[in-house]
Amino acid sequence: MLTDLARRFGTPLFVQVLDGIEAQVHKLSGFDVVRYAMKANPCLAVLREIRRAGAHVDCVSAGELARARAAGWTAEEITFTSDIYDHGALDAAVELGVHMNLGSPDMIEQYAERVPGGKVTLRVNPGFGHGHNAKVNTGGPASKHGIWHGDLADCIERARRAGLTVTGLHMHIGSGSDLDHLRRVAAAMVDAVRVAGKSVRVISAGGGLPTPYRPEDNPLDPAPLAAVWNEARARAEELVGHPLKVEVEPGRFLVAEGGLMLAEVRAVKSVDGAPFVLVNAGFHNLARPMLYGAFHQISILGRDGEPRRPTVVAGPLCEASDVFTQGSTGEPAPQELPTAEVGDLMCFHDTGAYGSSMSSVYNTMPIAPEVVVADGIPRLARPRQDPSAAMASEMALLQGEEGSVNP
Asked: The whole model's pTM is what?
């Protein structure tokens, strides 16, 4: 099928299998609410499948709010989480009436001015963080995210003075964290509930659930994590004297393993005796290796079982960092691959999260199309987006309505 899809839609090409999403959602049934972090993959076809599986959604921008509504979620099923709101995002959130998760103290009065008497969640930085890379660590003293745990009491009072009620608390310490650190979040949440008091009705475990990108990685069993959070819920309920809901906020956990990216080999060369393979996809398509030194298993279609050797795989962009096989500090990290030839199709695995969603038009490259597969049937979910459309709008501005060049 993959070869046929590449022939039909061209490369680079993202392919997302929808069939496993419902099972991933159901793995988190130990939580009261599963809330998808849309930034992982905002493709409408993916969103509709996640909504059909029973998950709610978390948004971080006005554009994501619009996508959530287009996918069919009601305002009651949408939360907006951020450390600021720009004017457009605040306008959209207020108009839709979605619940707000505030990550900075200054957001309190800004929201109260628009929604007097509103109910909000506060995102709390518990003082520590953890992720698969320092750049995705969202807790601790070096992180911009959330309200510092030592300032929580002041912010609760600040919200009260502004006429808001804090009904929820949220913690998210990083992406791709491990179970030991996620357990620490549950303990920190109980402390936060003790500070916030009886108005709290919902506590959120955040996201960051890891994905097995490497062959030796073990998949996360969510049951122990849910058990930890249900124990934390029980302790918190003793503090507030009423039932609490527990939410979890997965992104990559729902979609990463169902996605892949296809690219065509366009050149093969030797650099100081080492094989370099250049493909027609770059960090404008898949940014994670360049940003975090993230690992994606690479294979060559039709070459299983052939002898392998350490190989560097890179893209076409005019940047030294446009390399898919690199470590966390940019050092070479070749993968063992068969000898590639021009015209081969390379498959980059587990790209369903933060693959297409982080695409750009750097070097005036087109954004790759996305195909979704359900019940073995593929269909185009997002067409190739040609940057010439943006250039046409720029030309129109240059020419002006009357055909004269703008000053």
From this structure: 0.94
